[in-house]
Design goal:
This protein has 416 residues and is mainly alpha-helical. 49% of the residues lie in helices and 2% in strands. It has helices at residues 3-9, 19-23, 25-30, 35-49, 51-62, 72-99, 114-121, 127-151, 193-197, 245-273, 279-304, 331-337, 373-376, 378-387, 396-411, and strands at residues 188-190, 216-219. A two-stranded antiparallel sheet has the order 1-2. α6 packs antiparallel against α8. 45% of the residues are buried. One fe (ii) ion binds next to α6 and α8. One fe (ii) ion binds next to α10 and α11.
Length: 416
């Protein structure tokens, strides 16, 4: 849903927003009812109305996790998934502190960084809520996977010794976490090849190579500090004035980075699932992996709003060669970039059918891609996140540990 549709479909929440309210995120976020609070409340009513369903739910809750030890391969698969989820949790926590609607898990309203939140809302009015929910999902994935490993006698993953990166000092960050970050969002090279890959008819697993429609290089995805982007900056809806171009470019970078991260998870989980031995581990990998796909699809849509009207054309004045967001629906722009609308149209966010399994002998199929271990597996994920700049500042021991877990996961074999 783009921003225009959002305004017309959200009734009292989003209509008739004054320019003053647009400067103050509080009125827009205040009315949001946390989905988990709402569902919990609904659950009480539902139990009264639907006793049979409630009974089934209680029975399901009463069941304990399966006992018994995991195969070595299954433990390796889940350990790498836990590593990836801890990484995701750390980066999403940073995004949520600065741009989220509430504190984690339906906590209190989050003031965050007001200009950053407003710039994110130029991509979609619901961005703060989506960020919070994505963060909650990752926290739950990491906690569940480690708890499952422990409950089956396998070693969980702990990355606490690597929580030492500086992070942002801008208004909105959790001051207690400054200097204690696992991931670095301050200087990213965002690989945008997924944007063309999902619109193309060829499959990277069959040799196709894709390049992004433009580049995001050496650009922060969160405000760096209050000097670079003072919290008093006015961020109106588009057109974006010169004084707000920097913070809008940072928010646009975040929009594309969200999609980059989640498409990584979208490919990773199928590659892990293909190696699972136990039905329960397979179920875990498929069920969490499905949520990563859900995230990717959402962010793919939101990122497109940065490169379509009325927002397209933002240039970071501090980094014009690294963060310029063209209009990917404009024929003249596309001619200049030597691109075709078929491969850039911003609302074509659902996967185009492509070659799958065998190039010539079967019809095209709409699928996740890549799903090969070589291109979408654990080692490929570590390499891709590293090239992104996400771990800039981490010591060699961090990469050694990541590659050890990733290699073990990629080498896991299904035992039937
Ligand atoms: Fe996740
Ligand atoms: Fe994710």
């Amino acid at each position: 849903m783009n921003k225009k549709e959002n305004v017309s479909s959200k009734g009292l929440t989003e209509t008739n927003v004054s320019s003053q309210e647009l400067q103050d995120p509080a009125p827009r976020d205040h009315v949001t009812v946390g989905r988990r609070s709402f569902i919990r409340g609904l659950g009480i009513v539902g139990a009264t109305l639907l006793p049979a369903s409630a009974l089934l739910m209680r029975q399901a809750k009463a069941q304990q996790p399966s006992s018994g030890r995991l195969t070595r391969g299954d433990a390796d698969l889940l350990r790498f998934a836990a590593w990836a989820e801890l990484v995701e949790s750390d980066l999403w926590t940073q995004y949520n502190e600065l741009g989220g609607a509430t504190k984690p898990n339906d906590g209190p309203f989050n003031v965050g960084n007001p200009p950053y939140k407003l710039a994110l809302q130029n991509l979609d009015g619901d961005m703060p809520q989506y960020i919070t929910d994505n963060n909650d999902d990752e926290l739950s994935h990491a906690a569940f996977l480690n708890a499952y490993l422990s409950s089956h006698g396998a070693e969980p993953v702990n990355l606490d010794q690597f929580r030492h990166l500086p992070g942002s000092t801008a208004t909105g960050v959790d001051k207690q976490k400054i200097g204690k970050r696992l991931t670095n969002l301050l200087n990213l090279n965002v690989d945008l090849s997924w944007y063309i890959r999902y619109r193309g008819e060829e499959n990277p697993d069959l040799g196709a190579i894709f390049k992004g429609p433009f580049s995001i290089l050496n650009e922060p995805a969160i405000p760096l500090n209050d000097t670079d982007t003072p919290p008093t900056i006015t961020v109106p809806p588009p057109p974006i004035p010169p004084a707000a171009q920097r913070i809008q470019a940072i928010a646009n970078t975040a929009g594309f980075h969200f999609a980059f991260i989640e498409q990584g998870g979208t490919s990773l989980y199928p590659t892990l699932a293909l190696k699972a031995t136990s039905d329960e581990v397979l179920r875990i990998l498929l069920s969490i992996g499905g949520v990563e796909i859900d995230h990717f699809s959402l962010w793919h849509d939101k990122a497109g709003n940065a490169v379509s009207q009325p927002l397209a054309g933002v240039i970071d004045p501090e980094n014009p060669n690294g963060a310029t967001f063209p209009d990917l629906n404009d024929p003249a722009t596309l001619a200049r970039l030597q691109l075709h609308l078929e491969l850039t149209q911003t609302n074509k966010i659902l996967p185009e059918p492509c070659d799958f399994l065998f190039r010539e002998s079967l019809p095209p199929c709409s699928v996740i891609r890549p799903t090969s271990t070589a291109l979408g597996g654990a080692v490929a994920t570590v390499k891709s996140f590293t090239a992104d700049g996400l771990f800039n500042g981490q010591p060699q021991s961090f990469f050694d540990f990541a590659m050890q877990l990733a290699t073990a996961a990629d080498n896991a074999q299904r035992q039937l």
